[in-house]
Amino acid sequence: MFPLTLVLMMALITFWINQTVQEQGPRIDGSNRHDPDYRLRNFVTTQSDVNGKLRYVLAAAEMTHFPDDDTTVLQRPKFTQFAVNKPYTQIQGLRGYVSSDGETVEFFDNVKVVRQATADKGQMELLTEKLTIEPSKDLATTQSPVTINQAPKTKVTAVGMVFDKKNQTMTLLNKVRVHYERPAPKNIAPVKSMAKSNSAISKQSISKTKRKIKATPSQKRVQTQGVIRKR
After folding, report:
1. Tens of pLDDT along 198-228?
2. Which stretches does DSSP call E strand in 67-104?
3. With contact defined as beta carbons under 8 Å apart, do 132 and 108 qualify?
4. Which secondary structure element, helix H or strand E, spans residue 176, and what is its range?
5. Superfamily grouping for domain 38-180
6. CB 79: neighbour CB atoms within 10 A?
């Protein structure tokens, strides 16, 4: 029994050593390396809602996919989001990142968000260095400083922002500053044009008055002479 027990112990020790070496050693199949498996240039993808209407368009100059974590890296990405009876919103940056499930899109470096102008609101432009988009929730968030320019003459700066596209609301988190200039009224005529019109009116009234003054003595003389002749 002793030789059998010794052989069994040696087999267990050998198996344990083999498993330990395999777990610590690098795999040679490439699955533990962050290497891309494919690239696409001038990449464009679209998504529609249940009714077939366009929800958003994601485009990039180049898309690189990594199989180890199933993530996607974008170069110069541009994301355009649409909604029924609402202005579209376009987001772009120098770099982008898409999660494995496609539920999160991140933009980095010189990020610019433009919301189309409407009949009631002017165009809005947002500038930041990092922005996270959740397309299914219609949310855009950042913890970085943001600068917002709202036409015609409103400028807002803050740190951190939550933009709810569905409800058309924006929440600024910290250090909010606003610069607002009231637009000039549209119905007031310029001062120069009023001065010109008043001048023209006064000249016309003066000329009429002069004509009346000149005509009155001559008319009286004619009438007087006529009366004298009749007598």
Report:
1. 555 555 555 555 555 454 444 444 343 444 4
2. 71-75, 78-83, 86-92, 95-98
3. no
4. strand 169-180
5. Lipopolysaccharide (LPS) transport protein A like domain (2.60.450.10)
6. 23
Tokens of residue 204, six digits: 């016309």
- The model's pTM is 0.61
Chain segment 20-79, per-residue pLDDT in tens: 655 555 555 555 677 888 888 998 888 887 877 888 888 999 999 888 888 889 999 998
Using an 8 Å Cβ cutoff, are 110 and 128 in contact?
no
The 10 Å Cβ neighbour count of residue 114 is 17
> What are the structure tokens assigned to 95, written together?
């770099």
φ, ψ at 200 (rounded to 5°): -65, -40
DSSP code, position 27: P
